[in-house]
Design brief:
globular, DUF5683 domain-containing protein, 10 helices, single chain
Amino acid sequence: MNKSIFEKLIWSIALPGFGQYLNGKYFKGTVLLILEFLINIQSNFNQIILMSFHGEIANAIKYANYQWFMFYPCLYFFSMWDAVKDAGGDKAPYSFLSYVFTAFFVTVGLIFSSDLTIFGVLLGPVWLSMLFVFPGLIFGFIVGKILNS
């Protein structure tokens, strides 16, 4: 991955839509940015992050609006994939699968975040969803490699 593509990926990780702005796709970037703010506000995402970092997992679970929060992983990983694709990266067939499966696994982690404990610890919507990134990336990469061979 060249420096320009990596830069656009990192900006999309920072905030959905920024990678599209760097690619000159201003309308798409604006739509993604507006959607990010809408979902962020409606799901109480910033408050949930703050509570999770302070160890207030039970409050984060209560405060989360899951009907809105479940849109965030798809928006987030679509924004990353789209920025990389428009910058000229991910030319291999099925390279999008890592993004798709990661969004799926993170959403599943989010669904079970109020009930699932790991080693007896309830991680909540932020930490459990973040942990589900790794199996999503691995699974998507493996499926992509199988389909490409």
